[in-house]
Amino acid sequence: MAAAARLLPLLLLPLGWVRPGAYTDLPGSGWLAGTVPEEPRCTVERADASLTYSLFLQRFAFSRPVILGGVTDNSAFRALCTREKLLAAFGPFPVRLSTANTYSYRKVDVPFQEYVEHLLKPQDPARLGSDTLYFFGDNNFTEWGPLFQHYVPPPFRIPGTSPAYSFGIAGSGSGVPFHWHGPGFSEVIFGRKRWFLYPPDRTPHFHPNESTLAWLQHTYPTLPPAQRPLECTLRPGEVLYFPDRWWHATLNLDTSVFISTFLG
Question: Does pLDDT of 245 surpass 50?
Answer without folding.
Answer: yes
